[in-house]
Specification:
Elements: H1 4-12, E1 22-23, E2 27-31, E3 41-45, H2 57-78, E4 82-86, E5 99-104, H3 129-143
Helix pairs in contact: 2-3
């Protein structure tokens, strides 16, 4: 199977903190690898699924809990005013369902609010591995998972 998300999930246990901020038997939380916004998280099902309708009832129940827990942890760690949650799974090689959980800070630039926040994905300078790992460790502590 040629799925970036499945490959990362298979390698996540024991890897850098940014690859496994939290999770359970159904979900894994990672820091987005190509964002210029610190704290941009990605919530992914551990099994390969390409449609929201394809989630099991157990996965769906956990989805809501994780979105709220991550939003609370981001507020605690980053001081964000709110979080955005989005799911598209349309980019080439990224059809695996995944949810972006994005902190929107108090001073977040107006030109990157709402759906325009995706202008910060793939933008330079990207958040570096050390900063992602530091955030991951603080988020783990806020989630009570690390």
């Amino acid at each position: 199977m040629d799925c970036y998300t499945c490959e990362r999930t298979a390698e996540a246990d024991g890897s850098a903190p940014r690859e496994l901020i939290g999770g359970d038997e159904y979900w894994r939380v990672a820091h987005a690898f190509n964002s210029s916004l610190p704290g941009w998280l990605v919530l992914v099902p551990r099994r390969h699924v390409t449609s929201l309708a394809g989630l099991t009832d157990e996965e769906a129940a956990g989805l809501g809990r994780w979105q709220v827990r991550l939003s609370r942890a981001l507020a605690e760690v980053t001081g964000c005013a709110k979080t955005y949650v989005a799911q598209f799974a349309e980019a080439e090689g990224f059809a695996h369902v995944h949810f972006h959980v994005v902190p929107r800070g108090v001073d977040h630039p107006a030109e990157f609010r709402g759906p325009r926040v995706f202008g910060l994905l793939g933008a330079e300078p990207a958040v570096g591995p050390e900063e992602m790992d530091g955030l991951a460790l603080r988020l783990r502590a806020a989630l009570g998972t690390g």
